[in-house]
Amino acid sequence: MPRDPSIDPHAPGRPTPAATAKRAAPPTGGFTLLELLLAAAVFAVVLLAVHGVFYGALRLQQKTVGTLERSLPLQRALAIVKRDLAGIVVPGGTFFGQLQTAYDSASTNATNLLYQSASIPGPGAILQGLATPAFYTASSLISDTAPWGEVGKVYYHLVDPTNHSLGKDLFRSVTRNLLPLIQEEPEDQWLMSGVDYVFFSFYDGTQWLESWDSEDTTTPPLPEAIRVHLQLASQDSQDNVPEPVELIVPILVQAATNQSVSASDPTQEASP
């Protein structure tokens, strides 16, 4: 008589308990393809976000460094100009020459005269913003052992750059020997690059003037303040001209004069 598999555990064809447990056990280890694709997508999104943040921080750092590199020479140049103008001396005597822009609006040759000599800029250079008028200042002392005094003749001028950069190079020219036997070349000191033009204007107490002549009897020998107008060159190809830089330096030293203190009593004079 044949055995019933459902009753007899030893009947042929009935699965053993070990085989039944093996088939019922859940699968272990490994990931499905869908899980791998989902993980790769999430990782790509996170990596893209990190890359964007890193790239933005890197551009900000480069922009900040570039701004600082451009601003440091400008701040240094403005500090030197301010020191020179604040130390200007009253014209007169053997050593202290006149403050003159040498600009004559009626002269048709003024714009063609760039330099009168090696140490004096011409009216053409001053008119075109390529140089400033020469002035005498007490801020040119080098050291205690230098053979020159602290007074020197200074002016600023622009020179075409040698590295094909935008704008021009700003130089400070100083003549320290004020009694030379022969004409001497001034010492040039590089201040900064990327300058389009530089102008001086002069405040006489009521208005700003574009020219000044210390020998003019209608004005004082020195203005009450000097304004430096410095135009920087554009640093990109979109012709975005930066705002001009202005520096106003008050002139605290003035020549003493004997003037009438009362219009009704011309004999009463002020002490020098």
Structure described in brief:
The chain is an alpha+beta fold and 272 residues long. Helix content is 25%, strand content 21%.
Structural summary, described in words:
By secondary structure, the protein is α+β, with helices and mostly antiparallel strands. The chain has a domain at 65-250. It is built from three helices and nine strands. Strands 3, 4, 5, 6, 7, 8 and 9 form a seven-stranded antiparallel sheet that branches. The longest helix has 54 residues, at 33-86.
Q: Which structural traits does this protein have?
A:
9 strands; two-stranded antiparallel ribbon; 7-stranded antiparallel sheet; alpha+beta; elongated; about 270 residues; disordered C terminus
**pLDDT under 50 segments (min length 5)?**
103-113, 258-264, 266-272
Number of strands: 9
What global shape is seen?
elongated
Order of helices and strands: HHEEHEEEEEEE
Tally of helical runs: 3
Distance between the termini: 150 Å
What order do the helices and strands come in, and which of them pair?
Elements: H1 17-24, H2 33-86, E1 115-117, E2 120-121, H3 123-127, E3 135-137, E4 152-159, E5 168-175, E6 187-203, E7 208-209, E8 225-232, E9 245-250
Antiparallel strand pairs: 1-2, 3-4, 4-5, 5-6, 6-7, 6-8, 8-9
